[in-house]
TrEMBL record:
Domain Helicase ATP-binding: from-to ranges: 126-334
Domain Bacteriophage T5 Orf172 DNA-binding: 23-109
Pfam families in UniProt: ResIII, T5orf172
GO annotation terms (biological process): SOS response
Keywords: DNA damage, SOS response
GO molecular function, one term: ATP binding
Protein name: Restriction endonuclease
InterPro entries: Helicase/UvrB_N (IPR006935), Helicase_ATP-bd (IPR014001), P-loop_NTPase (IPR027417), Phage_T5_Orf172_DNA-bd (IPR018306)
Signal peptide as annotated in the record: none
Length: 643
DNA sequence: GAGTCAATTCGAAGTCACAT
DNA sequence: ATGTGACTTCGAATTGACTC
C-alpha cells in the first residue's frame, strides 16, 4: 500500500518570550514565528546557551477582521507594525524593546490582528513655540495664500531658520490636507521626518508618506500603507491629511511627469493643496523639472532656499512673494534680544561665523611668495586651488611636496588654524571641502602619515567612500560614518567633495576649510553654514560649553571676497545683480561684516580685519593684476616651481 | 582685443534593474 | 533582502565662436 500525503496541518503562531536571567536582554522581548510547537521552537533557540526563558504569550498568526480575515501572516508583518509604534528593534534581530511594559507587546498584537492602525506614527507630540521670525514667515505666507490661492512664495531663509517646523505650522494653520514635499536631496528627508515625528504626528491627523531610501529604517508609511490606512478609515468623518515626501529624481522618472518609468501615477491624480520645493536652488529651473512641475496639479507652491541667488537674479519673485531671513538678521536678533525678557535668548546658541582667508602662495614656498615683477610692481602668482590639489593617474598629488609643505605650514606657523595645541583643541572636528574625489583620497593618505594630523580620524565622505579598488569595506552612508567617527574619536577631519554640503547637521563641526575653487555663492555658503550649527557639550570634568564661534578658513582671497559681496548683496531684491548704488552695496557689506568678520592677510602677511571698501576693491585689484599677466595658464606658472 | 553666450566636458549623486 | 553596475541628470567650469 502506497502512502501518499501531500498536506500537513500547521498552526502558524506568533510567540513572545523574555530571558529574565540575562541582564543584557532586560526590557527586550523576542517576537518570533513558528508553525510548530512554540515551546519546542524556543528551546531550539536557547538550550545550547543554557538560557532560561519566560514565554509571555503565543497567539495564532491570523487576522481576525476583514479585508483578509482568516488569512495568516508572518512575524515580519507584525515587526513592520511595531516599527510604526516606535518600538526599538535590535538591528537584524527579532528582539524588541518594551521598556518595563511587556504588556504593550501583547496589546499591540491584539491591535494588529484587527487591522487597528489608528496609532500609526504616534509621534512625541511635543509643544513648540515658533520664534518670532518663523511666526512672521508663516503669518505672511498664510495671508498671501488667502489672497492668492494659486500663487507662489519664497522663503529666503538661512540654514537653521527652522523651515521644516515653520512649514508644518503653515500646513496646520492653513489646513492643507494634501501636501507634497519635493527636493533634489533625498538625504534631508530625515530632518523633515524628525520634526514631523517630534511636533506634528499624533497631535494631528497628518501622516508622513515616503518611500525614500534614506528613511527606510524609520516608521514612515509607504504609499500602500497609507492607502490601507485610508481605506480602513473611510467611515470616519475626520479628514486625513497626508504629507508626501518625494525626491525630484524619483518624480522626474515617472512616465506621467516626463520620465520613462511607470510609477507615481497617484501624484498626478491628486490635487495638492500645497507643493513645497525644498532646497529650491538645486535641480529646479531646468526643462525637465519644469515639465514635471507643470503636471502636478496644485493650489499653492512654497519655495524654500537658503541661497536663492538664481531665482532672485531672474526676478522670479516679487517683493511681496518673499520672506527674508538672512544671517545678518539672525545675528542682529541675537544681539538685540532684550536681556530683561523672561524668555531665554533663543538665538544665543547660534554661533557667529568668522572668515579667515590666507594667501596660499605665502604658505608653500619662498619663490612663489616673491611673485614676479611686472611694470615695477610685485605681483603674486595667480593661484588655482584645483590645480594645486590635482592628482595624476596613480592617485598621487601632482605637487605632492607643495601640498606637504602646505600641511606643514598649516600646523606650525602660528597664524594658521592647526599650529598650536590650543588651537587644535578648539578645532576638534572640521570639514574640508575639496574639488575632486581623487584629491580627497590623496589628501587622506597624506594626512594619515603626517605627525600632527595622525591624531585625527580622517573620514572620507566623497565618491563611494573607498580608498582603492581593493577596499571592499561595507559602503555606509557618509553621514553615518561621520557621526560614528565623531562619537568614537576625539578629533576628526571630514574630507568631502559634494556630499554633506547641504541640509545635513553635524553639530560638532566647528570649522570648514575651503580647498576647492567653487565660485558659486550658493554652494560656498551652503558649505560654510555646515559649521554654524548650535552645539553644546561637557568635558570630562563636567564643565559645560557652548559653541560660540564657527570658522571658515579659505585659501583664495580674491574669490572669497567676491563671494562675500554676492552674499551680502545678491540675496536681497534691492541690490541683486549689481543693482543699488555703491553706497547701498557697501552698507550691506558693512552690516554683514559686523556679524561675519573677515580676517585676511595683508601684503606683509599680517592678519588684518577687512573693511567694507576692501571687500569691493580687493577682488578688482587682483583681477587687474591677472590682466597684466595676460593669458598665461595658471598651471604654466605653477609647474616649474612645484615639480 | 574685451566681453558675452552657447557648446562641451567632467564629476557627483541618485535611481533602476539585475544578480545572488 | 542586499549589493553591484549601468544609466540618467544636473551643475560648474572650460573652451571656442561671435559681436562690438
Amino acid at each position: 500500500m502506497v502512502k501518499i500525503q501531500t498536506s500537513k496541518e500547521i498552526t502558524p503562531k506568533i510567540y513572545a518570550y523574555t530571558t529574565p536571567k540575562n541582564l543584557d536582554n532586560e526590557g527586550w522581548i523576542k517576537i518570533g514565528y513558528t508553525e510548530r510547537d512554540v515551546k519546542k521552537r524556543i528551546k531550539e533557540q536557547t538550550h545550547t546557551a543554557q538560557v532560561t526563558t519566560d514565554i509571555l504569550w503565543s497567539e495564532k498568526a491570523e487576522y481576525l477582521t476583514e479585508p483578509d480575515k482568516g488569512e495568516t501572516f508572518k512575524d515580519h508583518d507584525f515587526h513592520h507594525f511595531l516599527k510604526f509604534h516606535d518600538v526599538e528593534r535590535r538591528p537584524k534581530t527579532e528582539w524588541f524593546y518594551f521598556n518595563g511594559e511587556p504588556d504593550r507587546a501583547k496589546h499591540l498584537f491584539d491591535k494588529f490582528v484587527v487591522h487597528d492602525v489608528s496609532d500609526y506614527q504616534p509621534g512625541q507630540g511635543q509643544d513648540y513655540v515658533l520664534r518670532q521670525e518663523q511666526e512672521a514667515a508663516v503669518e505672511q505666507t498664510a495671508a498671501y495664500m488667502a489672497e492668492n490661492p494659486s500663487g507662489k512664495y519664497l522663503w529666503n531663509a538661512k540654514p537653521r531658520f527652522g523651515k521644516t517646523l515653520a512649514t508644518y505650522d503653515l500646513i496646520c494653520r492653513t489646513q492643507a490636507q494634501s501636501v507634497l514635499i519635493v527636493t533634489n536631496r533625498p538625504a534631508i528627508a530625515n530632518s523633515w521626518f524628525d520634526d514631523f515625528n517630534k511636533f506634528i504626528a499624533g497631535k494631528t491627523n497628518y501622516k508622513f508618506v515616503s518611500e525614500s531610501d534614506s528613511l527606510k529604517d524609520r516608521p514612515v508609511l509607504s504609499r500602500k500603507d497609507y492607502m490601507d490606512y485610508v481605506l480602513s478609515h473611510l467611515d470616519e468623518t475626520e479628514e486625513m491629511g497626508q504629507i508626501a515626501f518625494l525626491s525630484l529624481q524619483d518624480l522626474k522618472g515617472s512616465i506621467f511627469l516626463g520620465g520613462r518609468h511607470n510609477k507615481l501615477k497617484w501624484v498626478t491624480d491628486t490635487v495638492w493643496d500645497l507643493l513645497v520645493i525644498d532646497e529650491a536652488h538645486e535641480g529646479v529651473d531646468t526643462f525637465k523639472t519644469d515639465t514635471a512641475f507643470n503636471q502636478i496639479k496644485r493650489k499653492f507652491t512654497l519655495h524654500l532656499s537658503g541661497t536663492p541667488f538664481k531665482a532672485l537674479a531672474k526676478g522670479d519673485f516679487s517683493a511681496d512673494q518673499i520672506f527674508n531671513w538672512s544671517y545678518a538678521d539672525e545675528q542682529k536678533a541675537k544681539l538685540n534680544w532684550e536681556r530683561e525678557s523672561e524668555k531665554e535668548n533663543p538665538y544665543e546658541s547660534l554661533p557667529q561665523l568668522n572668515l579667515f582667508t590666507y594667501q596660499m602662495s605665502q604658505m608653500i614656498g619662498e619663490r612663489v611668495a616673491d611673485g614676479v615683477q611686472l611694470d615695477g610692481e610685485n605681483v603674486d602668482y595667480a593661484f588655482d586651488l584645483n590645480e594645486f590639489f590635482s592628482t595624476d593617474e596613480s592617485g598621487k598629488f601632482v605637487y605632492e611636496q607643495a601640498v606637504k609643505n602646505w600641511l606643514g605650514t598649516l600646523s606650525t606657523n602660528e597664524k594658521y588654524p592647526f599650529s598650536t595645541k590650543e588651537l587644535r583643541n578648539e578645532l576638534k572636528h572640521t570639514f574640508w571641502l575639496l574639488d575632486r574625489v581623487a584629491s580627497a583620497k590623496a589628501l587622506k593618505a597624506l594626512l594619515e602619515e603626517h605627525p600632527i594630523y595622525e591624531n585625527y580620524k580622517i573620514v572620507l565622505a566623497a565618491g563611494d567612500g573607498r580608498m582603492s579598488e581593493e577596499d571592499d569595506r561595507v559602503k555606509l552612508k557618509a553621514l553615518d560614518v561621520v557621526r560614528e567617527a565623531i562619537q568614537t574619536n576625539d578629533k576628526t577631519i571630514t574630507l568631502s567633495v559634494g556630499q554633506l554640503t547641504t541640509g545635513v547637521t553635524i553639530p560638532e563641526w566647528s570649522a570648514v576649510l575651503m580647498l576647492s575653487n567653487i565660485k558659486s555663492p550658493a554652494l560656498y555658503m551652503q558649505a560654510a553654514f555646515r559649521a554654524q550649527n548650535p552645539h553644546s557639550w561637557r568635558d570630562n570634568k563636567g564643565n559645560h560649553y557652548r559653541k560660540e564661534n564657527a570658522y571658515i578658513f579659505d585659501f583664495a582671497p580674491e574669490r572669497t571676497l567676491q563671494l562675500f559681496d554676492e552674499f551680502a548683496n545678491n540675496l536681497s531684491l534691492a541690490t541683486v545683480s549689481g543693482g543699488g548704488t555703491t553706497t547701498t552695496r557697501e552698507e550691506n557689506i558693512r552690516e554683514l561684516l559686523n556679524f561675519f568678520p573677515v580676517i585676511a592677510e595683508d601684503h606683509e602677511g599680517k592678519m588684518v580685519k577687512i573693511d567694507a571698501k576692501s571687500v569691493l576693491t580687493i577682488p578688482r585689484q587682483i583681477k587687474a593684476k591677472e590682466v597684466l599677466k595676460g593669458t598665461s595658464k595658471n598651471s604654466y606658472l605653477l609647474s616649474p616651481y612645484f615639480k
